[in-house]
Amino acid sequence: MAANSLTRRICAFGNILVIENRLKLPKLGWVKFHKSQDITGKLVNVTVTRTSSGKYIASILCETEIDKYPQVTQNIALDLGIKSYLVTSDGEIVDNPKYYRTQKRKLRSYHKKLSPSQKGSSNRVKAKIKLARTYEQITNLRDDFLHKLSSRLIKENSIICIEDLRVANMVKNQKLALSISDASWSKFVAMLEYKALWHDRILQKVGTFYPSSQTCNHCGFINPLVKDLKLREWSYPGCSNYNLRDKNAALNVLSEGLKILKAAVGAPDAIYACGELVSPEVISARDR
Ligand SMILES: [Zn+2]
Questions:
Q1: Is the same domain home to 79 and 18?
Q2: Confidence band (pLDDT; 50, 70, 90) for 166?
Q3: What is the CA radius of gyration of the chain?
Q4: 70 located within any domain
Q5: What is the mean pLDDT of the chain?
Q6: What percent of the chain is predicted at pLDDT more than 70?
C-alpha cells in the first residue's frame, strides 16, 4: 500500500492502516474509533495512550499541506483577562467560560467520595473514574474553546498584537492562580503562535513593562489610578476620550505592537490599523 492514498480516506504506514473510522494496529488488529477531525496526508506515526478514566486515545500524526486562510488586511490587539476572556482593540468582548470553576462543585463531591472509600474497593475505582472523566471533560471543553477562538482570530486578522504575559509569575498570586490556570493563556498564545506560522500571519508580542492599561490611547496621558483593577472606565479632564479599561489597553497594545514591527521590518508603505488604511506617519503621530 502506498503511503499516500488515492482516496485520501485511507492512510497507511508500515503495518499501520487507517480507513475511515477504523484503525489497524500491529498485534491488536482492527479497532473502531471516533474521529476528532479528518485524517489526510501521509501518515507518519500513531501513538496510543490510555487516559486516567480508562479511555484509549490514538494520536495520528500526518504530513499534510496546510490549506492557508485567504490574505486579510485587518489588524487587531487582544487584552487577555479573567472577567472577560479577552477584549479586542475593536471592542469585541469574549466571555470567559471558566470551565473548571463551573465544575468545581461536582469535582469536590467526587473528591469527598474518594477519601473515605477503602483502597482497592470497587466504589473507590468508580469514584476515581468519575473524577478523571470530569477532569478530561474540562480539558476537552477548554481546548475546543481555545482552538475555535484562536482559529477565528487568525482567520480574520493579518497582524495580532498581544502582551507578553508572564503567566508563571502571575500564578504565584494565590487569589488569581486558579482563575489564571483555568484560562490557559499560555496554551492559547501557543495556538496563536503556530497557527500564525501556518497561515502567514504575524503574532507580535509587546513587553509587560508597557503601561497599556494606564495610558490614554487618545492623548498618551498616563493615569496611575488605573493600577486599581476595579477601575473599569475612566477619562482624563484634559482629553475628550472616555476609556473603557480593556479596550483602551488593547488599542495601546496595537499601537505599540505595530511600532515594534515597523522598527523591526522597516517602515512599510502603508499599514492597516483598526481596519482603516493609515500611513506610517499617522501611526507614529498616534504613538507620540
Ligand atoms: Zn486622553
A1: no
A2: low
A3: 24
A4: no
A5: 82
A6: 85
Is 25 inside a domain boundary?
A: yes
**24 and 89 part of one domain:** no
Q: How many C-beta atoms lie closer than 10 Å to residue 2's C-beta?
A: 8
Identity of residue 217: N
4 located within any domain: no
Judge contact between 188 and 194, C-beta under 8 A: no
- Note whether 86 and 217 are same-domain residues: yes
Least confident of 12-26, 30-44, 241-255, 271-285: 271-285
Claim to verify: residue 211 and residue 182 sit in the same structural domain: yes
Could you give the CA distance from residue 35 to residue 60 in angstroms, rounded to a whole number? 10
Q: Which residues pair with 61 in a beta bridge?
A: 45
Answer whether 248's CB lies under 8 Å from 236's CB. Answer: no
How many residues are there in the chain?
Answer: 288
Q: Please indicate, yes or no, whether residues 274 and 170 belong to a single structural domain of this protein.
A: yes
What is the per-residue pLDDT for 250?
94
Which residues have a catalytic role annotated?
79, 163, 246
Compute the distance from residue 156 Cα to the ligand 1 centre, in Å: 29
Do 245 and 276 reside in the same domain of the chain?
yes
Nearest by Cα to 37 from 62, 16, 55? 62
Strands 202-206 and 159-163: parallel
Residue 40's domain comprises 10-63
The answer to whether residue 266 scores a pLDDT higher than 80 is no
Q: Report how many domains make up the chain.
A: 2
> How far apart, in whole angstroms, are the C-alpha atoms of residue 186 and residue 171?
12
Distance (angstroms) between ligand 1 centre and the Cα of 96 equals 29
Residue in the block written with cell 490557559 = 184
193 in the same domain as 50: no
Write out the residues surrounding ion ligand 1, Cβ under 5 A.
216, 218-219, 221, 236, 239, 241
Q: 224 C-alpha vs ligand 1 centroid, how far in Å?
A: 13
